[in-house]
Amino acid sequence: MKRQALRIVIPIVLFAVAAAWAQQSPAPAQAPGQAPVSGDKQGTIVRNVNLVDVLFSVVTKREKLVTDLNKEDFKVFDDGVQQEISSFSQPTDLPLRIGMVLDTSNSIRDRLKFEQDAAIDFLFNAIRRGRDQAFLMTFDDGPQVIKDFSGDSGELRDTILKQRAGGGTALYDAVYAASQQLLNKSPLPAGPNTDVRRVLVVISDGDDNSSNRSRGAAVEMAQRAGVIIYSISTSTEWVNIDDERDPAKRINRKYEKGEGDHVLEQLALETGGRAFFPYRVDDLGQSFLDIGDELRHQYALAYSPGNRAPDGRFHTIRIQVGRKDLIVRSRKGYYSVPTSPSPVPPAPANP
Question: What is the mean pLDDT of each run of 10 residues along the chain (351 residues)?
Fold first, then answer.
């Protein structure tokens, strides 16, 4: 009798343990880019919807912003397959979170003053007190955060002016670490709307001889973090002394970009930003004003890819605008978030 009673009691106990676990266990963590959908609270099944958000700018061939377009003016393609746009918003002025990344390696020693002036000029043009914030990172053999997020341009300037050059060049490690910083540590605005624009400004010659991470890994992290990269080259290898003396030639200068310049160009292109190749800081004045204006006047759209399930792989994005005279600037793709399997309750111990 005792053995038979025991056989009846054990299944009842196991059922009670499983039910209690199901009620007390938290729901699976919501991954970025996915929205949870659930039914009632009594033992419901939670599924994820793979939602892709894209920020983008539209300009004319002369780089003039176009801000009056509507949803009907755009088509979006995911891996070449047209998607239905589920949400769309015209340009809105969101707070900026900026990562200023300065190359302080030995290779830019002669251009350090240029870097400092360019960084300061950008921050004073971009940051609005009480609304935008930036942090400062330098890199030589590795990246270092030298000033955490601040909205005080004066404090940021003073920190920039204290930097000295020396050591190797770990550009890709710096882009990777700065993208993580923007994703995980950006201060969010108070109030119900906590959206921000995440921007990385990289000032470097584009060389890398010390990174542990590859360029592909750096770009992937920036794309996962939703970061737009603007790169400013410190290289002057393309400048001819005779051209520099002749104002006419200076205006019509033909760029002969080096390998490092192409790296900076690729970082910007893959994330929807722009690359600049100035000789003097004065050449950047209008460009900085244009960047700030562009960041505050970006469109946003979202769609749920209908041609496949989330798989963790890279997928291309192409946004097409109805007018041929316009250019769309956006990131080139994204890494989808694989759907997490439902948690399995732990097996009970043997009686």
Answer: 44 40 38 38 44 90 91 96 94 90 94 93 90 96 97 96 94 98 94 90 95 95 93 79 54 67 94 88 80 86 82 90 93 77 49 44
Strand residue runs (E) in 151-273: 197-204, 228-233
Residue 80 gets the label, from left (phi > 0), alpha (psi -120 to 50) or beta, of left
Domain with 22, as residue range(s), is: 2-37
Cα-Cα end-to-end distance for the chain? 18
Residues 258, 132 share a domain? yes
What pTM, to 2 d.p., does this model score? 0.76
Task: Say how many domains are in the chain.
Answer: 3
* CA gap 303, 193 in Å, rounded: 21
Are 129 and 251 within one domain?
Answer: yes
Which tokens is 287 given? 């460009």
Q: How far is CA 76 from the centre of its chain?
A: 20
